[in-house]
Every structure is written in structure tokens, then in C-alpha cells.
Design brief:
The protein is globular. With 152 residues, it is an all-alpha fold. It has one domain. It is built from six helices and no strands. 70% of the residues lie in helices and 0% in strands.
């Protein structure tokens, strides 16, 4: 990996501020708004997501045509295609169930702290425990699979 530009981390921080402000401004950092969307009572969330997708899509389509490499890292622009497999389906379903139970997605959960929702710390703690449990489960499974193929 190339050396990062000295403004890389401050720029990421500013991007986070803009992201958090946008989530707060659009009320997407409030779990009740997200739950209302999931119950088809408030359809504002798709408009916020669609607006973000348009801006991101334009940037991802145009930047590689303007520059050969990312300005702050020097890394070449390239696509990383993830195969659509069982893990994607199961992981997406589990993520959706968690989103439905908590009423908030991970990005908005952090922004929700900024608008004073301290009880969201329970959801964040659950996300960390769930991610740790999945990582632990995967490492145990890989160790077991490696031991099984090594015995052959």
C-alpha cells in the first residue's frame, strides 16, 4: 500500500462529520424513524438513501475517468467484486433481522449518539458482541477445516 497523504485522516474525519450531520438532519439517526420506515409508515428513508446513492454513484463513475489513482493514497481505482453466495444471503438476512430488532443500522447508530440517544449504546454493544462472536465462530471453523484437510 502506498504512503497516505498527510491530509488523509483529517479528510476521513471531515467526511464522517458530513455523514453524521446528514443522518441527523434527515432524522435517520432516530430509531423511531427507521422503524416507521420498516413498517411502511414513513418512506423518507428510501429518498435519503437514493440521494446518497446518486452522489456516490456519480463519484464512483467519474473519478476513475478523471484520475488513474486515488488522490490521497495513490492506490489505483479498481473494482472488488464480491461473489453472491450463501454467506452474502445469510449475512444479509441476519443483518436485516438485527436492523429490524434495533431499529437502526450501524452507521446511523453512531450518529444517533450525536443526537443524544444514549440508549443506542445497547445496540452498539450488541453489534460488537455479535461481530466478535461471528469472528470467533469463523476462526474456529477455519481451524477445524484446516485440521480436517491436513489429516487427509
Amino acid at each position: 500500500m502506498a504512503d497516505r497523504h498527510p491530509l488523509f485522516k483529517p479528510l476521513i474525519f471531515v467526511g464522517g462529520i458530513v455523514f453524521g450531520f446528514g443522518l441527523g438532519f434527515s432524522h435517520m439517526a432516530r430509531p423511531e424513524v427507521v422503524l416507521n420506515f420498516l413498517q411502511f409508515d414513513d418512506l423518507g428513508l428510501p429518498f435519503v438513501m437514493f440521494g446518497a446513492a446518486i452522489v456516490s454513484g456519480v463519484a464512483f463513475a467519474l473519478l476513475p475517468r478523471i484520475r488513474d489513482a486515488a488522490p490521497f493514497t495513490g492506490d489505483p481505482y479498481e473494482r472488488r467484486l464480491k461473489p453472491f453466495d450463501r454467506n452474502v444471503l445469510v449475512g444479509g438476512a441476519v443483518f436485516g433481522v438485527g436492523w429490524g430488532f434495533s431499529g437502526i443500522c450501524p452507521g446511523a447508530a453512531y450518529a444517533s449518539l450525536g443526537v443524544g440517544n444514549v440508549t443506542i449504546l445497547w445496540a452498539l454493544a450488541g453489534m460488537f458482541v455479535g461481530a466478535y462472536a461471528q469472528g470467533y465462530w469463523r476462526s474456529r471453523r477455519q481451524t477445524r477445516d484446516t485440521a480436517a484437510t491436513g489429516a487427509d
